[in-house]
Amino acid sequence: MKKFLASLLLSACTLGGLAHAGMVDDAVKRGTLRVGMDPTYMPFEMTNKRGEIIGFEVDLLKAMAKSMGVKLELVSTAYDGIIPALLTDKFDMIGSGMTLTQERNLRINFSEPFIVVGQTLLIRKDLQGEIKSYKDLNDAKYRITSKIGTTGEMVAKRLIAKAKYNGFDNEQEAVMDVVNGKADAFIYDAPYNVVAVNKAGAGKLVFLDEPFTFEPLAFGLKKGDYDSLNWVNNWLHQIRNDGTYDRIHTKWFKKNDWLKEME
Predict the structure, then answer these.
(1) CATH for 39
(2) For the chain, which has fewer Cβ within 10 Å, the N-terminal or C-terminal residue?
(3) Which Pfam families does the protein's record reference (predicted)?
């Protein structure tokens, strides 16, 4: 019996040693935290005039990597393929302004949200008064747009299904479709639209700023990696209470100095 128990313990230890260490342990051993990101979402992740990826979420990830004692490596990835890229080990984690949805949660795990946003509208200026909410757009005579693979697209197809929809690979192209009069409205997260209405709107857009969805943004990890999920969630609690989160949030949402880097 003693030999049998010893054999079981040895097998358990062997299996434990072969078990996957998890994202955080892998990043620490490697010395880099690799994060998949589509850098087109102001002010969360975007490319400045020097070709550097900057933004609110980028600064959060820099602080996360620092807490791990590793370097941050950002892996530019098209948004509509970002979950498959995570699942095939192209990077360790998704940090790309991703909304925690139940559909996505069937494929990957999510950390606790680091911010909550909602979908809003940028409409053609001549439609001001005619379009007061997303419900008014739910008509075949209207043309709407958003970025492919985002919750903006999902919401457009679910809540504004009667309107004609045409999606784009990036936010800028979709906004310009409205500016140029080819579409009537752009559906997207409030933090992006509040910047885009002035930066890209050319005086031709109106921002309907009342969010009509609830969208928690979170970091995406592989299924089953509960140790890493525990670490990330504990880190989020830490930065929310030690001033780190407030400092980063103020920089990107309460000041506009960063806009000079985008000109």
Answers:
(1) 3.40.190.10
(2) N
(3) SBP_bac_3 (PF00497)
How far apart are the C-alpha atoms of 198 and 200, rounded to whole Å?
6
Number of domain units in the chain: 2
Token digits for 197? Answer: 């209405």
3-state secondary structure 48-116: CCCCCEECHHHHHHHHHHHHHCCEEEEEECCHHHHHHHHHCCCCCEECCCCECCHHHHCCCEECCCCEE
Q: Is 258 within a domain?
A: yes
Report yes or no on 5 lying in a domain.
Answer: no
The one-letter code for the residue type at 45 is E
* Euclidean distance between CA atoms 261 and 185, whole angstroms: 27
State the pLDDT confidence band at 202, using cuts at 50, 70 and 90. confident
Residue 13 clears pLDDT 60, i.e. is over it: no
In tens, the pLDDT along 204-257 reads 999 999 999 999 999 999 999 999 999 999 999 999 999 999 999 999 999 988
Tell me which residue of 114, 89, 122, 149 sits closest to 205, measured CA to CA.
Answer: 122
With beta carbons less than 8 A apart as the criterion, state whether 65 and 72 touch: yes
Q: What is the pLDDT of residues 137-184, one digit of tens each?
A: 999 999 999 999 999 999 999 999 999 999 999 999 999 999 999 999
204 and 170 within one domain = yes
Q: Which two tokens stand for residue 118?
A: 């909602």
**Mean pLDDT of all residues in the chain?**
92
Q: Which domain range does residue 163 map to?
A: 119-208
Residue 230 and residue 237 in contact, taking contact as beta carbons nearer than 8 Å: no
Burial degree of 146 (CB within 10 A; 0-12, 13-18, 19+): buried
Residue 159 φ then ψ, to 5°: -100, -20
Are 112 and 125 found together in one domain?
no
